[in-house]
Amino acid sequence: MTAVLTVDLLARVLGSTLEEAAFVFADPTDDPPPHEGRLVEARLPFKGPIDGELALVAPAALAATLAANLLGEDEGGAAATGDDEDAMGELLNMIAGVLAAELFGEGGAFELGLPRVRRVGPEELARAAAGALAVATLVEEEGRRIDLTLQRARRAA
Amino acid sequence: MSYSVLVADDSAIVRAMVKKALVMAGLDLGAVHEAADGREALAVLGKSWVDVVFADINMPVMNGLELVREMRETPAFAATPVVIVSSDRSRARMEELERCGVRAYVKKPFRPEQFRSVVDGLLGKGR
Lengths: 157, 127
Prior knowledge:
The structure holds two protein chains of two kinds.
Chain A: H1 7-22, E1 26-28, E2 39-47, E3 52-59, H2 60-71, H3 78-81, H4 83-104, E4 111-112, E5 116-120, H5 122-129, E6 134-140, E7 145-152
Antiparallel strand pairs in A: 1-6, 2-3, 2-4, 2-5, 3-7, 6-7
Helix pairs in contact in A: 1-4, 2-4
Chain B: E1 3-8, H1 12-24, E2 29-35, H2 38-47, E3 52-55, H3 64-72, E4 82-86, H4 91-99, E5 104-107, H5 112-123
Helix pairs in contact in B: 1-5, 2-3
């Protein structure tokens, strides 16, 4: 049985993956704090019954926390080593696998691409998020925000 | 007796997570080799003894499926067991992997005990 794409589904998959993989507990919010400072954005394309792209965005400090928790180590220099970007890409990869199974069925016909990660500012992020099918925003215990966005692939005219 | 493993994943953080999970699972590890893609994995296999390979599917240069196919066509590594460690659960991939002789799969996110279970299944308990 497959699920229907909703913001609640995105939020549930994001929350459970953060909790299970990185021990970060976050709740959905309708009133998210604004993004500030440098952000880490991971994007991952997928093909299936619908083609699209998932994006995961978090402040660089939260990305460093995620990296440390994935590794079970102190936060140290995740930003310097690139572990924060690696962590965001890998978490998005896990989220995409779980979400695809929910949307297209466990063992359904779909293909995940490779994650691409970059550092962006809040303005750039707003432009990239325009036209999203669904966006889930969660806030973790320290008040830091993390967004999961699903966009349908753009078709050639 | 300890055994030698190869962890192939383009993410350094995942390679570290798999290594940590293998240790936490209580497996008796000898050498732990790493590779960032299938091509690097084949190079490691060509010069080191490896008891079991843990490989992602989605990797650049040479993906996990291509790696398994190359291994099966190379007599020296044709019998080396491969455990796929991936988020990708698509039916087509799973069927292709099964046709190539892959008998074990660990879904991400994973827990250490999953590695214990698949390694016991592939290599026998008590190693």
